[in-house]
Amino acid sequence: MAQLKVTYDEAVNAAYIYLRPGSEGARVARMYACDPIGVDGMINLDFDGSGRLVGVEVLAARTKLAPELLAMAEDVTEPEQSGE
After folding, report:
1. Residues 6 or more apart from 58 whose CB is under 8 A from it?
2. Which residue has the higher pLDDT, 25 or 31?
3. Do the Cβ atoms of 7 and 57 come closer than 8 Å?
4. What does 20-74 look like in DSSP terms, one character per residue?
5. Whose CA is closest to 39, among 60, 16, 13?
6. What are residue 6's DSSP bridge partners?
7. SS3 (DSSP) at 8
8. Neighbouring residues of 12: CB distance < 8 A, sequence distance ≥ 6
9. β-strand 14-18 against 30-33: which pairing, if any?
């Protein structure tokens, strides 16, 4: 089984799980927002043009994902912008 790629932005507490190798930057044709009440949060499913699930976006990731998964995720947190 191929290893999943996971990115995490600590500043906004959002993670993205890439389900297909090389799907970074792939065009998402359709996004399905899961019922926030049903999942007690916000989780978005991304599909490609063929209807295949290519990624999962998890908001409020610290409450939804295992700490071990977030610890191994690639940090994509943007450095703070200075007001200069």
Report:
1. 14, 15, 16, 17, 41, 42, 43, 64, 65
2. 31
3. no
4. STT-TTPPP-EEEE--TTTTTSEEEEEE-TTS-EEEEEEESHHHHS-HHHHHHSE
5. 60
6. 17
7. strand
8. 59
9. unpaired
Question: Does the pLDDT of residue 79 top 70, yes or no?
Answer: yes
* Cβ–Cβ under 8 Å, residues 64 and 58: yes
Measure the N-to-C terminal CA separation of the chain; round to a whole number of Å: 47
The residue type at 5: K
* Span 51-76, pLDDT tens digits: 999 999 999 999 999 999 999 999 99
Task: Record the pTM.
Answer: 0.83
Place of tokens 């065009």: 27
